[in-house]
Amino acid sequence: MSTISTALRNFKEPTKEQLTQIFFSVPNTPSTPTPAAGNGTDKTPPPSQEIEKMDINAVLSLGVQGEEDSYAGKLYIMAPYLAFASLDRKSVRFTIPLSTIRRVERLNARAGIYALSLSTWHGAKIIVQLTSLRPTADLFCSLLRDALKVELQRGQMRAVKGFVKTCYSEALISTTSTVADNEREDGSLISEEKEDAAPRESTYHGGLGLKFKFPGDPKKLREASKIKLWTQYLRVHGRNLTLLRYPQCTRLVQVGLPNRLRGEMWETLSGSVFLRFSNPGFYEELLEKNKGRSTTSTEDIEKDLHRSLPEYAGYQSEEGISALRRVLQAYSFMNPELGYCQAMNILAAAILIYMSEEQAFWLLEVLCDRLLPGYYAPSMHGTLLDQRVFEALVQRCLPIIHDHFQEVDVQLSVASLPWFLSLYINSMPMIFAFRIVDCFFCMGPKVLFQVGLAILKINGEKLLQIQDDGGFLNLMRDYFASLGDSAHPNSPDPRARAITRFQELLLVSFREFSIITDEMIQSERRRFRSEIIHSIESFSKRSAIRNLKTLGRFSKEQAGLIYDALYKAMCIVPPPPELQLLTAPALVATGDVGTMTEEKPETRIGLKTFQFFLSEIATWARDERIVSNGFQRRVDREIAEHEFIDRLFFFWDTSCRGALSFQDLISGLDGVIFNDLMENIEWFFNLHDKNKDGFLTKDEVLTLSETFLFIFRYEVGDAYLGAVSRFMTNAFEYGDALQPETGEAPIINEQGGETPPAVPTNQPYLNLATFRMVVLADEVLESFFETDLSASFRLEPLPEMELPVSSSGLLGDIWSTIATDNNKKMFNMFTDEIGKTIGKHQVVHRPSIGRYTKLEEPKLRESLLTPSMRHSASKSSLSAESTQTIATSTSTSSTLSVDVNVGAGKGSLPSSNSSYTPHPMLQAANIASFMERTPFAIDDAKDDEDESDEDLEDGENDDQVMDEVDAFLEAHDSGLTDADKEVAKDLLHAEPVK
Amino acid sequence: MADSAASGSVDKSVQVKLVLLGEAAVGKSSVVLRFVSNEFQANKEPTIGAAFLTQKCRLEDRVLRYEIWDTAGQERFHSLAPMYYRNAQAAVVVYDVTKATSLEKAKSWVKELQRQANPNIVIALAGNKVDLVQASASSPSVPASSESEDEADDATATPGETPSSSEPESLRQVPREEAQAYATEAGLLFFETSAKTGEGIVDIFTEIAKKIPIEHILAATRGAAGRPGASGSRPGAAAEGSVNLDGNTKPKDACNC
Ligand SMILES: Nc1nc2c(ncn2[C@@H]2O[C@H](COP(=O)(O)OP(=O)(O)O)[C@@H](O)[C@H]2O)c(=O)[nH]1
Ligand SMILES: [Mg+2]
């Protein structure tokens, strides 16, 4: 009753190119969603041309007031996107769709300087100086030109206009620029696009917050000031599709996004906006196509809808609930393999406060696919991995806390698991969690780790007092509840007193743990990935074994070896997907539901996988050739194919599904491995008695003989051949002779007189007793059934399978390309060829039984057979194997040592129905459920309507908003020398060529 | 591990870690809620990992402090369960009497606990939602929740099989005898419960309390104080990961009571 998944084996470390793509949030073109369910929408045409990619050194200048600095970095073309990152990879960066580039001009500049001016849809003029060699620059330009042309042909340029109207920032800019232009910015850049200001009001996407209010008090959150600052920023630096991220952007994000803009900024910063842009209508169509579909995911979703931020007004209404339902269902339809995982409901509920369903849907995709990879997968390997990484970081950065946890045996994950799984939303007051989410989308997944470390660091002293998991959770809960309090309540300095514990948390996160980078996270993940895969796999192995209905006569360790062989077979010959989760004739709603018990999905394998499996276990189910060619001696193993193996497959398929489960294999093997002579003969007989009438037909006798020949095909000498031919002779002789006597058998003897030869080949002919007699008459066959048959099934520990390559860097890459199976094959072929030419090539088949090894050509062969082979041939391999196994494979599941005396306490306890009731006095205080999202009063939505600058007290300058972060932001490095800056400045005034 | 110095040295309570396991929606959270605050309500239960609650109880002259870990979640959270049941002294494995598969799942949890958890763990099996298979008349004092869906079907003790046509439908899919027999065989405490009516709920925790070797826990606690370097007992710590999937458990001996 288990499912066995080999999915983790297929994991591949992202290539360097993919990492760049991930960094720039460029959608993964091949995985641009094709809804697997409800037969694919052919919405996204597969990109026929291969994507042109190139990068080039460049210096970026914006040349507007406030952004005079130029930045050296790299410009990338990843059609259909253009991207830039400054050398430090964080000061300045952008990713913009090529379709938003309105004009490209080559600038007329000093000799030897190659510069382009790019105008974006929003009027920003980006000047890039290509500092690579001239031919490289030329190539880059021509690539850019071609890519732009393609976009034009695809009509993407036209799509931009409609799309940007769905973004709140457009409304923001257009309204504020008409309302109060008391600011000193020059409106020249945007003046031209005021033309279509008319229908903007209601077209932009927004979240539930617009109707149900946003969490928190807008005044305290200084919404008005934030909006003002963002308006200024977005006007100059572009917005939504064309946003250019300068240091100020990160700073503004760190003080918290304003509620109304938050949804759009999330999708912009995460890059999900590109998915929405390039898949218009996809979300609606997906829902339409899958309307009314019910899956396990949709059932699970249903259970959680009312437990997702239930304290928020929007989720006390049907409107919010059904939006949440649609988004989660749509995601599960698009990605059925992941489906739905608890915690996604929290995420979806959170983001839906700030963004529309369609926006939330694409953001969810980016979260599950890129930002939190593997977190919500069925094995949750990403979650487990990051918990492990987090623990390692705690060990490194906060060793004292780590040691204390070790000492008192507290598991970090009991608290930190939900932090990561729900981006802190489930742990903190929403208004604070959302600010962490802001930073997360802006600065990447490292933020989760930085904040986690900071939480522990800030609570360090108290953490050293805790003694168990429960105490840890209590402490954390109290801390999160106090985030709104002053961090320094007793400080004489009012400014210090004004700093909240939350601000302190961010400060510590980004200042003290700035050493934590995304690259570090990546490499830590690589470090622990195989460990995590191992532990997941060994966990599922143990549950698979535990969930067997019967182990038969096998020990757990032996069952483990069988599991290993099965697992290996599934990795190498994956069963067709429809078999993987073969359910019983499902409980279809045909009427009387409930009578039939629903069966759990169970992994089963088909014939092909079975052949591989058996080749791992039974010596005759593989062809092993011992090859020596003067360079090496090796054993080439191939899977044998024979009717006998198919026969075994169907013989073990007792429930007639055309597929075998782990249980079937265990039971099947149990039916042969432990047999004695008589049982083996009977087993072999039954295997060939297709209709199970207790008789073999003549045909079946022949088949059985062929089976013998198959099993003995590589035996040395004539002994077996002789035995089989004697068997056939005797079988027919006895069969014919005994024919009249086996009168009980319902022989329809039509041709009365001449009994023996006239028995049709498909009529009952030989019964078990006769068969036994014939077999026992032959010494070779007798020993085969006595020991060799059972011993030909060998449960041996498999060598460790290679995990997905986890080494990285150049060396890792090279090694991984060399060490593939294919290359090994090539190497083998190569050496074989040489061996042949020098006359040293030899191939010898390894016998399956190997009893009579010394009959012929002893010299040559004996040298090839290892002593242990000859040794084990004659005795049951099981006992020997199992002892060996116990030593090797049980070490992981070591059991507990004896735990003092159990009986001690019993006598002293009053046994009658003593006065045992929940203690009333103590009750009230104890109802605390920590991982449950506790509603925090601070999140209560306040009226947002009267928000305006006038509400701010006089002394409250907008700039003060920035105070809290300016303190800890490091200086940004433009990566340029003064001379470089001069050149860049020049370019701002350069004229286009021609 | 200076226990006396740690929290509540005055308090003579014994701390018992208890974990709830069982298929989703069998009523684990409801059972806990009934026990901890004696109410039954639509849940807004934890959805990530487990909820952690505490409840103090008095047993004779001794105060027991239950530390309850109410695991939540889908099948895919299963691999996280060891994190919650490690070191537990007691477990309540819940199934739903109206859903046969939930008993299968419960059995599998029991097996897992017996193999992977603390060897002295006291396990109780609870067949919940028994109110659904009782005639309203026979259900014990139900003050709060007399909802419309309280079906009146015969309080037949032979449920499951052949609901005769006169008896509209018995929702019961797990006969009491069957579960009882299994529990006896596996050495579990057994109760049929209803979080809705409160039936059997307190009994679970009472019986567990009686069965728990409290003296033993106390002794272990005392013993641990003198044991040098508890951290030495985690040799495989590095390989263990923060989420302990290996199910290696060691008896928990630290306890701040
Ligand atoms: N009739 C009835 N319903 C119950 C009982 N216990 C729980 N439920 C309902 O079963 C559903 C699942 O309960 P919940 O406690 O969330 O289950 P969990 O997933 O195991 O924690 C909820 O709708 C409960 O109201 C019970 O004793 N009787
Ligand atoms: Mg629950």
From TrEMBL, chain A:
Return the annotated region ranges for Disordered. 26-47, 860-895, 941-994
The protein's matches in Gene3D superfamilies, at most eight in alphabetical order, are given as: EF-hand, putative rabgap domain of human tbc1 domain family member 14 like domains, Ypt/Rab-GAP domain of gyp1p, domain 3
TM spans (from-to) = none
The UniProt keyword set, sorted, is:
Calcium
Q: Where is the composition biased (Basic and acidic residues)?
A: 969-994
Please state every residue range assigned to the domain named Rab-GAP TBC: 256-444
Q: Where is the composition biased (Low complexity)?
A: 868-895
Boundaries of every EF-hand domain copy: 676-711
Acidic residues bias located where? Answer: 941-967
Looking up SUPFAM superfamilies in the UniProt record yields: EF-hand (SSF47473), Ypt/Rab-GAP domain of gyp1p (SSF47923)
Keyword Calcium on entry: yes
Q: Name one GO molecular function term.
A: calcium ion binding
| Keyword Calcium appears in the UniProt entry | yes
> What Pfam families does the record tag this protein with?
RabGAP-TBC (PF00566)
Q: Which PANTHER family match?
A: RAB GTPASE-ACTIVATING PROTEIN 1-LIKE, TBC1 DOMAIN FAMILY MEMBER 2B
The entry's protein name is: Rab-GTPase-TBC domain-containing protein
Q: Which organism encodes this protein?
A: Roridomyces roridus
UniProtKB/TrEMBL annotation, chain B:
> What is any Pfam family matched here?
Ras
Which superkingdom heads the taxonomic lineage of this protein's source? Answer: Eukaryota
**SUPFAM superfamilies in the record, alphabetically?**
P-loop containing nucleoside triphosphate hydrolases
> Where do the segments described as Disordered lie?
136-178, 225-257
| InterPro entries noted in UniProt | P-loop_NTPase (IPR027417), Small_GTP-bd (IPR005225), Small_GTPase (IPR001806)
Tell me the protein's name: GTP-binding protein ypt5
Q: What are the protein's UniProt keywords? A: Nucleotide-binding
Q: Which GO terms describe its molecular function?
A: GTP binding; GTPase activity
Q: Which NCBIfam families match?
A: small_GTP (TIGR00231)
CDD domains, per this entry? Rab5_related
Q: Which organism is it from?
A: Roridomyces roridus
The record's section on PROSITE patterns has:
RAB (PS51419), RAS (PS51421), RHO (PS51420)
Bias (Low complexity): 136-146, 155-168, 225-242
